[in-house]
Design a protein that fits this description.
With 125 residues, the protein is an alpha+beta fold. The protein is 22% helix and 30% strand. It is built from 2 helices and 7 strands; from the N terminus they run βαββαββββ. It has a 7-stranded mixed beta sheet.
Length: 125
């Protein structure tokens, strides 16, 4: 079976939030895949990368279609340059989870993290 040209290959790298959003929009519009990591055997596998200023962020393989839809709606509502906020992750272990927009919204099913974890919460991009 041929790979869809809009599928996101492991370790895809983006140099801006705009490029990152564009790749996700293409994936959403042109595939029927449920998650970005086609055969991800481990949920927390870093799959797609984006550089935001000094911060390197990765989107996990188990990021799903619904999470990407919500992210794209948020970007469409606010703008492609909407701020990203690094907050404490759901487990309460690390300050590495990205939240979005002026209200620092957490999107279920959208697993984007900064590496390495930070010492304090910050706004990036």
């Amino acid at each position: 079976m041929a790979l869809n040209p809009y599928s996101i290959a492991k370790n895809t790298r983006c140099t801006s939030k705009q490029e990152f959003t564009q790749r996700l929009q293409q994936w959403y519009d042109h595939t029927t895949e449920h998650v970005i990591g086609i055969s991800a055997s481990r949920k927390q596998t870093a799959w797609m990368w984006v550089q935001v200023g000094l911060y390197e962020c990765h989107l996990n393989a188990d990021t799903n279609r619904d999470g990407i839809r919500k992210y794209l709606q948020l970007v469409d509502h606010h703008n492609p340059d909407a701020q990203w906020h690094v907050r404490l992750n759901q487990k309460g272990e690390n300050i590495n989870k990205i939240h979005f927009g002026p209200d620092a919204e957490r999107i279920r099913g959208f697993y984007l993290y900064v590496i390495p974890a930070l010492e304090a919460e910050v706004t990036i991009g």
